[in-house]
Amino acid sequence: MQNGMGGTAVNIVLNDAVGDRRVLRAADLGATVLGGAWVFALHAPGLPVHETWGRVRILRFALRSRSWGRALPLRALKYAEASIRMVASAVQLRPSIVHAHDLNALPIGLSVARLARCPLVYDAHELWSDPAGDLFRSRAVRLVAKALEGPLVRQADHTVTVCKSIADVMQHDLGIAQPSVIRNIPRFDPDLSAPLRGPLRTALGLAANVPILLYQGVVSRGNGVEHLVAAMPALARFGAVLVLLGDGPDTDGIAIAANRLGVGASVMTHPYVSPEQLPMWTRDATIGLSFPQVICNSYRLSLPNKLFEYIHAGVPIVSADLPEARSLLQRYGVGVLVAPGDQVGLERALAGLLTDKVAYARYSEACNVAAHELTWTREESLLKAIYDQLLSGRSSSVQCR
């Protein structure tokens, strides 16, 4: 099949699509394959209703019911409004393929696909049978989601997800063919003319010889940031600084905890940086950190994007020893694994990397080698094969990793 065959791909996601590069990259592929692509998302204050991202058109729906409160009946009405408006708008586009991102978008995607008589791809960004989001969802919402997940997913023409561990659980629990694995790897486009250092040190006023222990991502419970802060007193002799690059509900609480431990000056924060800019900021780090707590299966089986971001920046990793991280770090030799929640082990691993220059150089070089294999281009080719098969009317037989 030739690229740009003529048609439209509609991607549906129930967030504002800002920074959700998995959604935008999938839409960009749709534009490549079909010639046109849309992202239907939810509007948030300060964002444009209409926006373009390269070849992708983004339409954000400003819900009239947005301010109605969070009681369950009102949330159901909000969902109904989003569903009706998105379905009506999408059907008018006569899409050639629909790509629904996460379970909350799946009923909308199914409605569009059936009315437009086109194939549907379901993309599970997390394990919805036991998601991290359960920390913030009501029990009633969780029960409804779990009851509907299997029947809804079985109606999709093809299911994809972010890692093999989650694909295995979905296959077993939902009684479906194993989802294809499309890892959420950022684009890797090394700029050989770019400076060796980025803007992070300058933004925080840190000298070139100050070791930066970098955590990038949402600062929230479950992500293990409190363990990283608790490690700082043991690392004081190295003059290291823990940098939290991102925003989140626990940012203020982490600052309070750092001051209580007497390491307030060694724990620094910087607001969210756009994915386009992030690679330059990450390269300033000395060590990349990923230390989630095992509070649910979705966290235990996750493959954090930050691991790929560290690798692309050539930054050795210290990570919790969880299945997907273990597979990645052991295969490519890019860092050190620590048992989840092992505070002493975390401190020893960080001290070891800060003192063993030979080991550090080995991990750094392994990152540079792995970066050229771990690219979105490879993942995109798998998704393109799925699109090609569905659009040509063949049953999908793309193999998982």
Taken from the alpha-carbon principal axes, the silhouette is: globular
H and E order: EHEEEHEHEHEHEHEHEHEHEHHEHEHHH
What is the typical, i.e. mean, pLDDT? 91
Give the low-pLDDT segments. 395-401
**Major beta sheet, strand line-up:** 3-4-2-1-5-6-7-8
Instruction: Look at the structure and name the CATH superfamily of the largest domain.
Output: Glycogen Phosphorylase B
How many helices in DSSP terms? 15
Span between N and C termini? 24 Å
Task: Write the CATH architecture name of the largest domain.
Answer: 3-Layer(aba) Sandwich
Q: Main β-sheet: number of strands, strand sense, barrel status?
A: 8 strands, mixed
- Give the amount of beta strand, in percent: 15-25%
CATH topology of the largest domain: Rossmann fold
Give helix % range: 40-55%
Domains, number: 2
Content-based structural category: alpha/beta
How much is the radius of gyration in Å? 22 Å
Number of strands: 14
CATH class (first level) name of the largest domain:
Alpha Beta
